[in-house]
Design goal:
The chain is of the alpha/beta class. It folds into two domains: 180 residues, Glycogen Phosphorylase B (Rossmann fold), CATH 3.40.50.2000; 168 residues, Rossmann fold, CATH 3.40.50. It has 14 helices and 13 strands. It has a seven-stranded parallel sheet with strand order 3-2-1-4-5-6-7, with helices on both faces. Strands 10-9-8-11-12-13 form a six-stranded parallel sheet, sandwiched between helices. Strand 9, helix 9 and strand 10 form a beta-alpha-beta unit.
Amino acid sequence: MKEIAILHVDPAPCWRGGQQQAFYLHQGLCQRGIRSGFICQPHLPMARRLQDSALPYHPLRYRHDLDLWAGFTLARYATRQGYNILHLHSGHALNWGHLAKLFAPGLRLVASRRVDFPIQRNPLSRWKYCSSRLSRIVAISENIRQVMLKDGIPAAKITLIHSGVDLKRFAQSPLAPNYRSLWQIPEGAVIIGTVAAFVAHKDYRNFLHAAALALKTNPHLHFVAVGDGALLGTMKELAQELGIQAHISFTGFQREVGTHLKAFDIFVIASKKEGLGTTVLDAMSLGLPVIGTRAGGIPEMIASGHSGILVEARNSEALAKAMLDLAADKKQRVRLGENAQQAVKRFSKENMVVENLRLYEELLCSES
């Protein structure tokens, strides 16, 4: 078998869960002595994180999905450096990989699929996932695998590899002694928090309506929403309309998420669609009781009644009831949190790295 030489590609301008997963994978492969490189755009969050961590990377510019020059420069770099697999960590990265393969047909392409949206019906989108030029698609949840099967992608082309988290990532995160005063949270209030980008599928509207319902019964609750995004302003306006602005803190983007997670009493994810949702895993690793929706890959992480509570998606009444029940029962919160810490171990980043490495070995064996 040829030596494994992986070049990861992610041109994203932001830092979200997908970028964290690509970073973990690259880091884990390097730690195992595997040849692993990374292509990202210069001066953006991924480049800064890789540089700060002393991990190998090479900056290239990617302007748009028909950027042939970017495809040529990626192919030239990959072939000169001896890489034999491109791992493409987003839809835009997959476009870039297909362009590179025009100039370096010998490159094997692996794509990660992290969202449970159906593949778009336009011919280009369908071609880039169904093309024989793409060796394998990594689905980060069984739900995503099922969506792709319904879209006509052969089962043999899809490999299920759950996302992984650093189980000790937030163990040393400090608990801010002034957290409540900083975010204007009354002493004695039960803190119900979420960490999610303000985008449509995270369904902050559901979260806020559930909060308003719960506050009618228990006014000693306080909600914290950690994240940024296009809908942040709209959700702040909705909080005003619902009359709950004094009971919710919008923190915006926070690099040190662990400080917030450690202050929460309950973690909620209210999504109507979700690839997997690694912030849930982060919360579980800290022993937080989690309330999630039966959406996407969330039920793959939470056994309802054992390691968390599941409610139907888009059901604010059910979500509010779960919030009220857990807020009133500290023993139940402790029990669910302890079970969550045990359940999350199978979602370690180490397992994720090993399974990806096994995939690379399989590809090189079958195509050598």
